[in-house]
Amino acid sequence: MSAVRAEDLRKHYRIRSGRGGEDRVVHAVDGVSFEVPEGRTLAIIGESGCGKSTIARMLVRLAEPTEGRILVHGAEGVDRRAIQLVSQNPWSALNRRKSIRHALEQPLAVHGLYPDKAARAARVRELLHLVGLTDEYLGRRPGGVSGGELQRVTVARALAVEPRVLVLDEPTASLDVSVKALLVNLLLDLKRRLGLSYVLITHEIDIARHLADEVAVMYLGRFVETGDAERIFSAPRHPYTRALLAAVPGPGREPAAPLQGEVPSAVAPPSGCRFHTRCPMAVDACARTEPALEPDQDGRLVACLRADELLSPAETV
Amino acid sequence: MAPEPKAGGAAAPSPAGPALLSVRDLAVTFRTRDGEVPAVREVSFDLARGEILGLVGESGSGKSTLLTALMRMLPRNAGITAGHIGFDGTDLLALREDGMRRLRGDRIGLIPQRPMTSLSPTTSVGRQLRWHLDGLDEGRLKELLGGVGLGAVLDRLDSYPFEFSGGQLQRLLIAVAALGKQPDLLLADEPTTTLDATVQAQVLRLLLELRDRVGLTMVFVTHDLGVISQVSDRIGVMYAGRLVEVAPARELFDAPRHPYTRALLEAIPGRHRRGEPLRSIPGTVTGANRLPGCPFAPRCAAVVDRCHEENPEVREVGESLVRCHRAGEDL
């Protein structure tokens, strides 16, 4: 059974316009399906506004899908404890007036776990140790703790109710390079020790590359390419995936030939393939026909009318 | 009163000719409730015309403070307590405020991190362009916006900043700061940090293109090692207020000399096999800018006793300038 299964998820937000005007609809997520096998990590990558964080919010039921459904370990919406969120900014995720002890006790209290006082205190210490922090942090408030340590606290808090799946929404985006490494290592270690499954939402390609078993590339509310992470990162097929990976700056690399323009509005997504307005390979048909995600020869799914022509020379031999 | 310029202080000489900008032993201190906090200490470097110097460091390393000090726009509770800044033969710290004001924008330009907060939200973009660029006619406007790939927004100039994307606004500011004003020196503070990857690539290409076309001289500050590797001729690495290493970009990545630079490069995920634990740097930077010795000593794998007592002098190793007692040793 998969840890998470999402079926044709959609989330549309209505924006009210002033008197007389017609309401507009933001197609934040527009029909995505995915599965995360138990013990695996799915990374959803894309740029801001593509809808990846909306998926995170739907997974933990902070937002109700407009259409579609989400199954966690085969069940729909029964057990909130089974799937928990770690968000991007630990400073805004924690109450700055309350101690870290309070932050870790809160989920236990809400769910009526460890009602015995001594047992609850022991559990709080256990959680803190789990993320590599010592008892001395218990009495501190978020203001007196560094960003990297604070992000560990939010991970510990998410683990308090013994979830089987963590949704990691840009977990390292606010952290410095040296601290980022520590958090990545912690996530790898926890997954192994606790048998967790992860849904990792990120725009940091190198973090996704390091943690993910599978990857879904998202553009304007839809997946354009999904499949085995190593295959996709080493040989991206969809023109958007290629542009996105090429745009990652690194030593010894020239800045990528940039895509034209910017991501169009999700209020009025382009007709046909949503990427056609910026795609270097677009042909007339791309503006008319919306490509479906079709299986490729190596098992990945690609949504591109010209997918067959996109094999790299090495692969066609 | 401006402090006396101090002679000496081994600097990072720029290889490409006489320096446009020359910084010596610069120190900036913040006055806080807990006493004085040194934010920048003993920073020296030279910058030649047409050169891009990247400054990289983690949060709190002093890189943005250094940039603000170069513009002399430090907040009230901060001050330059020592050092010398020479700009095209002028001693910037000896200038009166009105003289400095004449330099800002026209001869020393700034690209800020968040374009949205640098523009007035209640004035049309076209009107703001005219504020900054006197005698702007249609032809010139077309040329400027075309030069940063914004030709398509020419008919939208009566729109307000919120109606543009972050990438468009950042290019607009680059059009003003770099092309409109054509300053001798451009300072860029994390100019692509808030942008998406594909838009960041556009802006980086644009800056490199402008360097080749109009000979931009630039100090580019960022925390992103990937970005800095692509735009810089030389790179300076900052840690806890000090410039610990300066080297040509290739040299820095191929042969990092300072233990901190090494540790930083080793922490990049791309240098590891997938799923393998990343190398990390133990300890924390907190408090390091008050230490008497080398600020990296408490976290350094190669630390020896004198590192805790004495701040290392700058040493030349190959093409790199390194502040480390053990520079040049086979560590």
TrEMBL record, chain B:
<comment type="similarity">
    <text>Belongs to the ABC transporter superfamily.</text>
</comment>
<keyword id="KW-0813">Transport</keyword>
<keyword id="KW-0472">Membrane</keyword>
<protein>
    <submittedName>
        <fullName>ABC transporter ATP-binding protein</fullName>
    </submittedName>
</protein>
<dbReference type="Pfam" id="PF08352">
    <property type="entry name" value="oligo_HPY"/>
</dbReference>
<dbReference type="GO" id="GO:0005524">
    <property type="term" value="F:ATP binding"/>
</dbReference>
<dbReference type="Pfam" id="PF00005">
    <property type="entry name" value="ABC_tran"/>
</dbReference>
<keyword id="KW-0067">ATP-binding</keyword>
<keyword id="KW-1003">Cell membrane</keyword>
<dbReference type="InterPro" id="IPR027417">
    <property type="entry name" value="P-loop_NTPase"/>
</dbReference>
<dbReference type="InterPro" id="IPR050388">
    <property type="entry name" value="ABC_Ni/Peptide_Import"/>
</dbReference>
<dbReference type="InterPro" id="IPR003593">
    <property type="entry name" value="AAA+_ATPase"/>
</dbReference>
<dbReference type="InterPro" id="IPR013563">
    <property type="entry name" value="Oligopep_ABC_C"/>
</dbReference>
<feature type="domain" description="ABC transporter">
    <location>
        <begin position="23"/>
        <end position="265"/>
    </location>
</feature>
<dbReference type="InterPro" id="IPR017871">
    <property type="entry name" value="ABC_transporter-like_CS"/>
</dbReference>
<keyword id="KW-0547">Nucleotide-binding</keyword>
<dbReference type="InterPro" id="IPR003439">
    <property type="entry name" value="ABC_transporter-like_ATP-bd"/>
</dbReference>
